[in-house]
């Protein structure tokens, strides 16, 4: 596992960077979808509330690996069909990084929807009613009252979703992305030392988890400054 010409250290570190990159893209994609779905769940329109409910129910009930396959082979079929119109022949695979990030983003968005929804429900109703009584339009009410306070309650749950996304990124190896888990498989197959590679992969995953966990805890403490907590 050295960093020299004969070692696999650089390959494992590069794969770790790919894991962090695809997990980060999927996480922020899920954050956008989660915010939209959470807002829809509070809408006065029945169709929007039903759509948000269907989104969270379906995506949390389907295995993550199945979602990745559906995104990859579905988008590959579309690309192949479009390419056939221009004379191309055969199957054209979709970019593994993009489809993988979108897949785990859609899945994580379902979980983040519930996190954001719970954070909004935890807000004191009096403050929202006071903002409405003051004449604040909905967007201003959201920006000045709902968003700053809901973010405080959402940080712990969002941290848990990040850990989930990080572990889901290992599933993207099935569509050809060389991330940390896939690189460990390649290295163990080439050297016939599976224990060393999988142990190294576990250590790198734990390192990412530890660093990101510390970041979320610091963000939570900073967000909760000046807030009295029940003992």
Brief account:
It is a multi-pass membrane protein. The protein is an all-alpha fold.
Task: Give the key terms.
231 residues; mainly alpha; MetI-like fold; 0% strand
Walkthrough of the structure:
The chain has 231 residues and is mostly helical. The protein has one domain: MetI-like (MetI-like fold), CATH 1.10.3720. It is 77% helix and 0% strand. It contains eight helices and no strands. α1 packs antiparallel against α7 and α2 crosses α4. The protein is flat, with a radius of gyration of 22 Å. The mean pLDDT is 88.
Q: Supply the CATH class.
A: Mainly Alpha
| Terminus-to-terminus distance | 48 Å
User: According to CATH, what is the topology?
Assistant: MetI-like fold
Rg, nearest Å: 22 Å
**Shape summary:** flat
Return the CATH architecture.
Orthogonal Bundle
Q: Can you say what the CATH homologous superfamily is?
A: MetI-like
Number of strands: 0
> How much beta, percentage-wise?
under 5%
Number of helices, where a helix is a run of at least 4 consecutive DSSP H or I residues: 8
**Total domain count:** 1
Which secondary-structure class do the elements indicate? mainly alpha
Mean pLDDT, as a whole number?
88
The run of helices and strands is HHHHHHHH
**Helix amount:** over 70%
Largest sheet: none
């Amino acid at each position: 596992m050295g960093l020299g010409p004969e070692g696999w250290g650089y390959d494992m570190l590069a794969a770790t960077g790919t894991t962090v990159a695809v997990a980060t893209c999927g996480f922020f994609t899920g954050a956008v979808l989660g915010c939209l779905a959470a807002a829809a769940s509070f809408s006065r329109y029945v169709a929007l509330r039903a759509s948000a409910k269907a989104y969270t129910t379906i995506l949390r009930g389907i295995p993550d690996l199945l979602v990745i396959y559906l995104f990859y082979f579905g988008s590959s079929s579309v690309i192949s069909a479009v390419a056939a119109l221009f004379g191309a022949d055969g199957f054209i695979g979709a970019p593994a990084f993009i489809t993988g990030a979108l897949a785990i983003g859609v899945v994580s968005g379902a979980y983040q929807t519930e996190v954001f929804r719970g954070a909004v429900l935890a807000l004191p109703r009096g403050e929202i009613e006071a903002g409405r009584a003051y004449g604040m339009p909905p967007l201003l009410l959201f920006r000045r009252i709902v968003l700053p306070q809901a973010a405080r309650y959402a940080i712990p749950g969002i941290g848990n979703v990040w850990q989930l996304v990080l572990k889901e990124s290992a599933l993207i190896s099935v569509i050809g992305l060389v991330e940390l888990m896939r690189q460990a498989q390649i290295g163990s197959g080439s050297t016939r030392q599976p224990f060393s590679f999988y142990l190294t992969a576990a250590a790198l995953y734990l390192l990412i988890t530890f660093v990101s966990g510390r970041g979320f805890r610091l963000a939570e403490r900073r967000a909760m400054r000046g807030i009295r907590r029940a003992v």
